[in-house]
Input
Amino acid sequence: MNEFSAEAMGLVIREHRQAQEPPMTQEDLGERAEYGKGGAVSISRIEHGLISPREHRLAALALALRLTPEQLTQEAEDRTRSLALERGQRPVKLRDQVAETRGRHTEINEKVAQRTKITQEHAEAFNRAHDVVRDTFFMRFVELAGTISGAPEPERPSEAESGSTGAVPAAIRIEAMSAGIASVIRDSAGGAAGGALGAAAGGAAAYSAFTAAAMFGTASTGAAISGLSGVAATNATLALLGGGTLAAGGAGMAGGILLLTGVVAAPAAALAAAGFYVLRKRRNKREEERLRIGVEAAEEALAQSQQGFDVMVDVLSRATAIMEYVEVHGTHALEKWRAGLPAEPRDWESLGRDGQERYKEFLTVAGSFLSASIINVPALLAADADVSEMDRAIDDTLRCADRTIKSLV
Output
């Protein structure tokens, strides 16, 4: 678990960025640290202590600032301790105490609002990219594959490969999901189920059928997969708690999770417990003490949920980038393959060797797409302890899905 606060890391990074010769802009640092599109926004949020870079990002930032990850981490840890000492030195006069507590109260409210905004932005970007790929690549491939008779079903990974205990390797999960997709394509082709799926191609009904078929194996945390639509899920309860569905301008499932798991609710509740005293221009010592305790509890709640929040932001950002790659390159490659298919009715042999290989590759891309869609965001945000193990498993999943997709399309 990190021994530094997001605030301390942000201060250290900003100081080193500004100390470069010539001074480096946030945009420059974002580009050199490979943050991609919107890198300056990410750097700004890091420097303001809203998010803290994950391990792979930390290494890239350190390199861009001509430091080692160890040096950057050590400076952030030292700054965390010095900030704690500064905050431990309370003003003597009640008037100054009131001003200090009021300032800390305002800062917490601003951070909570920013967390909500950041989550909504990332969830909406992911959901948009996910839904486009679902309709233009995933279900389009399913529709085309359903017109090919005699296609072989990939072998499912054996029990020994999958492992009876512990987390299943990402590559094995992708194989299992691809096999599950192929199995449904084969079983539904030409039958009543096939007709229903064809009619709903690109829609939620057909997509649900195929995600359910891919439920072989385990999720990234080692727990059984209970749903495969990730943060794009249409869970009515979570969507409503998040402020309504995405279509209605709400935060969708990710927003609901944010509120339910304390990333926002815990600090907000701590502030509420402080009562209305913050609104008073004058407070007696007892009222000031009550408000200060509430503010400190809110600060602690923010700090405790920071790691899970940081992982969530990183996961959604990386998963969205994977979706956007498939949106551009996968859909183009699929259309090119479709244009070269023989006329219907078509069978496996009529595809030729190149067409058959492309079919297998698209099946693997579809499995990789699902693996990047089912990251267990609720488990990340609900965790009360160190999420490092989940973080590593998720990193493995995203790296494998990204590498696999880019090798094929």
